[in-house]
Amino acid sequence: MEWMSDPTAWAGLLTLVILEIVLGIDNLIFIAILVDKLPPQKRDKARIIGLSLALLMRLGLLTIMSWLITLTTPWFNLFGHDFSGRDVILIVGGLFLLFKGTLELHERLDPRTQHASGSRMYASFWVIITQIVILDAVFSIDAVITAVGMVEHLSVMMIAVIIAIGIMIVASKPLTQFVNQHPTVVILCLGFLLMIGFSLLAEGYGFHVPKGYLYAAISFSVLIEVFNQIARRNQRKAEDRRPMRERTAETVLRMLGKRPIMANENGTEIDESMPQDPSLVFGDEERNMVSGVLTLSERNVRSIMTPRNSVAWIDLTDTPEAILAELESEPHSYLPVCRGSLDEVIGLGQAKEMMAGLITTGQVDVKKLRESLIVHESIGILQLMDLFKETRGQLALVTDEFGAIEGVVTPIDIFEAIAGEFPDEDELPDIVAASENQWLVDGAADLHHLEQVLGVDGLVDEDEEYSTLAGYLLERFGTLPQPADHCSLKWGHDVFTFTVKELDGRRIARVAIRKETEDPHPELSTEHA
């Protein structure tokens, strides 16, 4: 052990340890890829056995250095080229790496190799161990020959190999986990193994490939992959900062075909999603219903209620004949019962009970009225659903912050927010398709429903108080428009023109909407005389 007092021996030991680790990285990477084919509970065992066999094989080869050196002497001549035992081992090892690397790439790149059921078939434990032994033999030859050429003392070589393999065993588990969690890293590692296999094959045929070139290419590829992983990590962090509900809704809507529109540098809106035809899987009604469900939590009662000026109610100050006529003309089962004005609510009456009382006694029996459910206009729809369930209510009065009645809402209104409009017998649909790409819309039409029909976003603004088309247009015009006034909304390559057709006093009653599609490549279009 006189080498322990020799500083050059210690320097050689340190250098050899580093070099052995570098030479063993490719072996370790391939072991990580191979053990991924085993059941999770057997992977650690296979990895440790594989590296332990590599250690034993390298120590065994070091003890027979005299035989190892003879591997460089020619064994036979073929086509004028001498092949040594080392050359044969390198050629066989290179072919094995090329074969396994190509096979692994094929399995990961071809989706047809995946099982349709989603279940995964694991390889046999000893089959993987056998492949690891073959790899160890190939990589150990190269590592041991390098060790023999660097230092003179056998003990120094063995210590360096033991330290290097020990470090690799400790680092193998996190490296294996990292490789298996990042598919792009696996593809990169398989590319490295193909490069190494080709270099072994070339050296076996006598074409020396400088290791510096190989490691430079690998280092550059690793650097690019590091940048790629950093970019992916930053993207995931940015996504994690978004609300889970928003991300889930966006993912589902992408599946259903409602693609987000992004803006490019010129301010033109472009579609960044992959081309798809969701209509082959989901119908328009299905997509609209799922979209309605996902947006319920973002909407308040004001967006689905019947506004005050359209509310049907019973005034107890009217004559019995007038009340009876009102009940006969209204299709609703429940109506607010008030005294003098809608703000003076007494209760909620069932139409058939009030009609029976009027026929028998000539008046509405106030004692049979139900207590009114009163909610604020800012309450969410999901919270309103819970209130309807708790109170078993059929109608709720919506008030503003001053207690004035703003409108009424029923469970049917919630259902319409999901499935679309269900007009009463005395009502016309709010949205009527006049012809292809043209619609005639009531000013009181719900903006969420209108977005679904038109296939656009941007009409609804949660920061604004309006929830109808009339409110949207009043916000756009800034004042009460006159018939024939119009404004436009651009969505992708489509332009929607809103033209006011009819006013009802100070209310926008009817609006015509026309859709026109712009040519995405105007420079390619030609005009003919």
Structure overview:
- This protein is of the alpha+beta class.
- The chain has five domains: 204 residues, no CATH class; 32 residues; 38 residues, no CATH class; 122 residues, CBS-domain; 92 residues, Uridine Diphospho-n-acetylenolpyruvylglucosamine Reductase, domain 3 (2-Layer Sandwich).
- A five-stranded antiparallel β-sheet has the order 12-13-16-15-14, covered by helices on one side. Strands 5-11-10-9 form a four-stranded mixed β-sheet.
- α1 runs antiparallel to α2, α1 runs parallel beside α6 and α4 packs antiparallel against α7.
- The chain is elongated and about 120 Å long.
- The C terminus is likely disordered.
Q: What is the topology?
A:
Layout: H1 7-35, H2 40-63, H3 65-70, E1 74-78, E2 81-84, H4 85-109, H5 125-150, H6 154-181, H7 183-204, H8 211-240, H9 244-256, E3 261-263, E4 269-271, H10 284-294, E5 306-307, E6 314-315, H11 320-329, E7 334-339, E8 341-350, H12 351-360, E9 373-376, H13 381-391, E10 396-399, E11 405-409, H14 411-419, E12 431-435, E13 438-442, H15 447-454, H16 469-477, E14 486-491, E15 494-504, E16 507-517
Parallel strand pairs: 6-7, 9-10
Antiparallel strand pairs: 1-2, 3-4, 5-11, 7-8, 10-11, 12-13, 13-16, 14-15, 15-16
* Inertia-based shape: elongated
Strands of the widest sheet, in order across it, are 12-13-16-15-14
Strand content: 15-25%
Amino- and carboxy-terminal Cα gap: 100 Å
Mean pLDDT figure: 76
Number of domains: 5
